[in-house]
Amino acid sequence: MKITSADEARVLASVPKGLLIDGVWRDSSDRSTLDVTDPATGQVIATIASATAADGMAALDAADRAQKSWAKTAPRVRAEILRKAFDRVIELADDFAILMSIEMGKPFAEAKGEVMYGAEFLRWFSEETARVAGRFATAPDGKMRLMVQKRPVGPSLFITPWNFPLAMATRKIAPAIAAGCTMVLKPAALTPLTSLLFAKVLEEVGVPAGVVNVIPTATSGAVTGPIIKDERLRKLSFTGSTPVGRRLIADAAERVLRVSMELGGNAPLIVFEDADIDKAVSGAMLAKLRNMGEACTAANRMIVHENVAIEFSTKLAEKMSALKVLRGLDDESNIGPIIDEKSRESIHELVTDAIAKGAKALTGGQVPSGAGYFYPPTVLTGVSRDARILKEEIFGPVAPIVTFKNEAEALELANDTEYGLVAYAFTKDLNRGLRLAESLEVGMFGLNTGIVSNPAAPFGGVKASGMGREGGIEGIEEYLETVYIGIADPFED
Description:
By secondary structure, this protein is α/β, with parallel strands linked by helices. The chain contains 14 helices and 22 strands.
């Protein structure tokens, strides 16, 4: 698809620029605004309303007022709304992809893939809506009847990241709608436009006023802090960095607020001696370069058996060096820009530290000149085990490679991190694959594949990578309370 400047202008013009509170698009209470920039050029592409603390409380007011009636809405009604939303997002797939590419940088084809992935949460949870069930049973001693019901948690606050602006919104909003919860969405300040367009879609398909409220802001803490402290809020779901997640958990603990946290990652990708190296390289490309490496699921550490390390490294460097680093809407783009200059500097600091400690760049490793926040795909070999790049989340297109001698050493290296989101491994030995599945300290594991995310599967991690699950049959449970009713034996007078 050839994307023109007219296409870009049309899509940008279609996005609401206000806050959505109680079914009304409005300016912020103090008329403050937020500029959104194109990371490929550094130029401002839109100016939108920036919510204040008062706006945040108004959004919570609206969610609270709507909660009772929304919870009583028939499951089938909620399901049909979600299905209509799915259909409408698919109709607008190109527009959403253009918008995402402009505001966060990913190539158009990859952005289109996110649209299809994000939309699937709407369809999946439309199908789960009517499947929420309790149970009725006789107590083992026969003296009582046990009834278990599920009911909506209640008003929820969603804080979403900039790297997957549609999918991270649908992954939270869809199960909340399905469960009968109202919500306030605070999208990332770097990429709020996709969430605003999605909110417009939800309006179009019949989501009642107050059920979904959207408050982009340049002052996140000042806006979300009072909401988290308010007794009417019943649920907090956050996707972002572990340091921010820790602070939010501490804040939520004061009220014993129910939380879901999808935090940072430091994913290992293990290549064993018996692996199909070409398949391992292809899998590594997917696991490393999805979203330019700006993904919590990105393979952060390539842990490769010493006997195949040279072959793997050489082939990976060849493939990565052939990629074209261009603006996402360029027809030839394989890799778009990093989200902002600060993030690019952080990536390069990790690369520089690794090289200073003995690593060699087979390709990349230099900051390019010119406009935009681009960084070349980079492969590092001979990485010292005390290099920062093995301990910290890279969030960029950099693949550091370390070697191992045996399975035990590979496991030790893989688990040597505070994070535990996902791991990948390539081996032809099924028994080894099963041992890894039971030994790796992660919430998700990809065996002979570089992609694990799927709306039908529970997404989430262990250790410092968070708590709770999104997607799958588990995803809706995050928005349901379990209520037990004990009933006296009906045969007793």
